[in-house]
Every structure is written in structure tokens, then in C-alpha cells.
Amino acid sequence: MIDYDNFINESIKQVKPSGIRKFFDIAVEMDNVISLSIGEPDFQTPWHIREAGIRSLEKGKTWYSPNRGFAKLTQEISEYYKRRFNVYYSAENQVIVTVGGSEGIDLALRTLVSRGDEVLIPQPAFVCYDPLTYMAGGTPVFIETKAENRFRLTPEELESSITDKTKVLILPFPNNPTGAIMEREDLEAISKVIIKHDLFVISDEIYGELTYGGKQHVSIAEIEGMKERTIIVSGFSKAYAMTGWRLGYLLGPAPVMDQILKLHQYGIMSSPTTAQYAAIEALKNGDDDVAIMRKDYDMRRRLIVGKLNEIGLDCFEPLGAFYTFPCIKSTGLTSDEFATRLVKEKRVAVVPGTAFGDCGEGYVRISYAQSLKNIKTALKRIEEFVEELKNESKG
Amino acid sequence: MDKLLELLSENSSFTNKELALMLGEPEDYIAAQIKEYEQNGIIKGYQALVDWEKVPDAMVTAIIELKVTPKKETGFDEIAEQIMAFDEVSSMYLMAGSFDLSVFVNGKTMQDVASFVARKLSCIDGVIATATHFMLKAYKIGGVSLTDDDSASDERSMVL
After folding, report:
1. pLDDT of B139 over the 60 cut
2. Model ipTM?
3. Are A38 and B156 in contact (CB < 8 Å)?
4. Looking at residue A91, what is its pLDDT?
5. Which of A261, A286, A311 is the last residue of a domain?
6. From the CA of A343, how many Å to the nearest CA of chain B?
7. Domain limits for position A14
């Protein structure tokens, strides 16, 4: 009999499966579950964007694109980032179109990190940074962001995590799962530390279009001295509800992008052609669609935050992405127990905070990428659940 | 469009508190606003959205196209008011195009509807022609899809 274990790479064996999945798997086994656990828009891609994809197929545009992506698309991306976030990248050599933001994160890490380099990862954070750093040969070092700082990264926290091996800081804001954002003054404060220690930044700005409460996303590349040491990761999935098209992009200094391009070239060759035609239309004529979706998310966000606080689950006000991150410590349950019992007893799926790092204990992630009607029903069920827990502990 | 009206027309069961949260306005302002809409007749009422197909012994619905002769002084209004007075009529519209009035009629059976058309509608002075269309299935009413069960129709998968 073949011993597969002998054939598998030692590092990949060490990588744990994602903790988000477990609850989804429980949820799909049951009927009538409302899932507030999913990290993708409930909207469909706006029709005119889909149509642009369809038209390209009708015209027979079925070949590979150039490695960097179609020139028309890199041009549009360049103009878009300038227009929306006030940072300019040359379409010629500072933009690469990737297979989702995810490929971008992987490419950036594998291009920057050498064996033994330390990569700083603020947590709670999206689940991929840790395993991808590890597979790139780097050592993940976690920085715990705190509720009392509205889950923003402070210069003190950053400073105290830096060693002589630190090379890269991952900056995941607007943040999944907390919904935290970094404002200009927050970015200015950490930039001083980054420059002082000569670090490089991978800024994951995939949720950059989704900010609320009158706040605009600020890219760290806009802060003086930072553009030259930053790779921006972004994409079309969250802003334009285009998750299934698998399209993202990287922006960064040309010497780094040239190296990244080799990896992209050999591993992927080029990103999906149909999706690129759709993306051109999204950037050209999609601002209004984004505004409409943002407004809808904002209404749901206010409803959930207001209700959770009323129910007694302390919820800091998230100003970005489409997640709330309420504290469930008052129930006396662990995150895992809370999520497991909530889905079993009340048919509402949420993700335990621990899926996003150990420091997520005591919190759950509740996504509002779900219809208002379902959110309303789910909140009622959560309220009943918390009431029953209170009675339980009294009895 | 007014966001408050939009929300209420989608789902009138939102409480004032929920509406206040969503719109970022004080609760008493929302209450006052709704009262004003009710008083000046912008909000005419609140109804449940029923999928009659799921109800045993449900009624049948027909849309009847009517061609009528308008009156000299009152145009279509007088005859419209005469027709809408029947309990069987649930909704009614004046239309542009090849007929004049679109009348929604409910009855227990198709026979009921047929006899209402033959004995009551057709006999009204000024009614020139009728065409009765029975409704077979409702897919969407007032912006709400009746075909999918929300939680079951979530096709999204958990990828990470």
C-alpha cells in the first residue's frame, strides 16, 4: 500500500483547515438555517457588468490575456485608484491583474518573504495570511488588536512586535472580521514606525469601497514615504459583487512588480479573460452600483449593531466591510459554544471569533451580506437565544 | 424615492425602532413621519402579502380587460366608480392601449368569476367588450418573489 504521508510536503501537513468551514458544514446539514456566516455579497453582479462579459464571449474573446492583464483594464484600474483613493500607479508596470485578491496576497508574500523572515499579522484577521506566510517560508507573528482601540492597529502594538527579523507588515483594513477601519491619523502614526524599521507593507484593501458613517477609505500608500514600500491588494469581488468571476489586482513599485509578475506568469499565466472584460465595464460605469449596495449594507449594519447592543451583546461600531463583531462574553459561553448552540438551537449560523485568531475568543463574526428580511428574522432568533441563556443561568 | 416609504412598501412589519436604526433618524421622527403619510393619504393601508396558492380552498383571480365608452362630462371616472363598487373587484386600473380598464376580480371558482362577468360587468351601460384572463400562478407580487424560500435559495458556498 502506498504511504501518501511520505509524499506530502512537510509544511502543508502542518497547515490547519479553516475554522470558518466547520460551522458552514453544520449549517448545510440542517433546514431553515439563516446564514450570517458568509463572506461574500448577497447581491448578484450588476447586469450591465454581466452583459459586458457575455458580449465578450459572443465576440469570441476566448484567448489568454497578456500576463499583466489587458492594457485597457490595467489602465482603468490605474485611473480608478487615482480617482477613488488618490494614489497613482502606472498601468505600464505597476499593476498586475490577479485571480482574486487571494492570489495577490499569495504572490506578494512569496515574492517578499525569505526563509526565516517574520511577517506581522494583526489579528483578528482573515484566515489566509497565516498559512500563506508559513508556506512562503516566513514566520507569522501575530499582533492582537483590541476592542478598546476599536480594533485598529496602534504604533505601540506595532513597535513592540518588531524584531530584527521583521520584514513585512500585513495591513488588513477595512477589516474582516471586525469591520474596523484605519483613518488617516492612525495610518500616519504607524507609518513612522514602519519607516523607522524599514518594513514593507502588504495592504489588503479589498473592502476599500465599503466604508460607512461618512468615512472614506484611506490607503496607506497615500501617506508620505509609504507608496515606495507598499503593495496594495484589491479586487472586484466585494465592491462589485463579483466573487465568482475571480478577479483582483496588485499595485506596487515597479521593481517589486517585475518579480511578482514572474511568479504570476509561471503559476497562473493570466487571469480569466471574460472576467477582465466585465471588470473594465465595472470600473467605467459601476460607481452607482457600488453606491447603491453600500447604502443597503449601511442600513443593515445600523440595524444589526443597534439590535445586538439592545439584546446585550456588546458591539463596537464597525465602519467598514460587511461584518459586525459582537462580544459574547456576557453569555458565559465560549465563541465556539455560542456559535454551535446558536445554529443547533436557533438555526442561525455565525462564525466564532477564534476562527480569525486566538484573540477572537469571546467574539463572533456576524455578516450582514444577507437580505434585510433574513437579518430581521435572525436577530429575533438571536434575541430568543440570549434570553434563554439568561434564564438557564438563573435556573 | 423616499427611503422610509421604500422600506415600508417592501415590508410594513418593520417597527419604528428598526426603521429609526436603519435610517439613522430618531424614533419619534419616524413615528411622526409615518403618521403624516397616513394622514395625507400617501400611506393608504397595510396588508399581508399572501401566497394564495398555499391556502386550501383558495380563490381564483382573473384580470378582465374592459373596453368602455367614456362619458362626456366625467370621462372614465363615473363608470370606473360603478365597477369598483363590486366586492368581487380587488384592484382596478385605467390603462393606455388597446383597452381601457384593467379589473382584477376574485372568486371562489372560475364559474363564479365567469358569472360575475356575464351577469354584472357586461350589463353595465357603456361597457363595450370584455376579455377575461385567469391567473394561473403568481411569481412575484409587490417586489417580493413568491417562488423562492429565502434560506433555501441561498446558493452561496462557504469557501474559506
Report:
1. yes
2. 0.79
3. yes
4. 98
5. A286
6. 13
7. 4-45+288-394
